Amino acid sequence: MFIFGSILSPWAWILILVLALVLFGPGKLPELGKGLGKAIRGFKEEMKGKEDQSVE
């Protein structure tokens, strides 16, 4: 079981945000977010490419 009952609870997100601010600082967070977004987009594109290859 999770401490907060659900990982998607507002308190869990607040805790994650506070920890990120403490660990990385406010100046580094936009850069980290941009990198995470690129990684997610790349993963989605690769998964879509694999689906297209398996259909052929």
UniProtKB/TrEMBL annotation:
<dbReference type="InterPro" id="IPR006312">
    <property type="entry name" value="TatA/E"/>
</dbReference>
<dbReference type="GO" id="GO:0043953">
    <property type="term" value="P:protein transport by the Tat complex"/>
</dbReference>
<comment type="similarity">
    <text>Belongs to the TatA/E family.</text>
</comment>
<keyword id="KW-0812">Transmembrane</keyword>
<dbReference type="Pfam" id="PF02416">
    <property type="entry name" value="TatA_B_E"/>
</dbReference>
<dbReference type="InterPro" id="IPR003369">
    <property type="entry name" value="TatA/B/E"/>
</dbReference>
<dbReference type="GO" id="GO:0008320">
    <property type="term" value="F:protein transmembrane transporter activity"/>
</dbReference>
<keyword id="KW-0813">Transport</keyword>
<keyword id="KW-1133">Transmembrane helix</keyword>
<comment type="function">
    <text>Part of the twin-arginine translocation (Tat) system that transports large folded proteins containing a characteristic twin-arginine motif in their signal peptide across membranes. TatA could form the protein-conducting channel of the Tat system.</text>
</comment>
<keyword id="KW-0472">Membrane</keyword>
<comment type="subunit">
    <text>Forms a complex with TatC.</text>
</comment>
<keyword id="KW-0811">Translocation</keyword>
<dbReference type="GO" id="GO:0033281">
    <property type="term" value="C:TAT protein transport complex"/>
</dbReference>
<protein>
    <recommendedName>
        <fullName>Sec-independent protein translocase protein TatA</fullName>
    </recommendedName>
</protein>
<keyword id="KW-0653">Protein transport</keyword>
<keyword id="KW-1003">Cell membrane</keyword>
<feature type="transmembrane region" description="Helical">
    <location>
        <begin position="6"/>
        <end position="24"/>
    </location>
</feature>
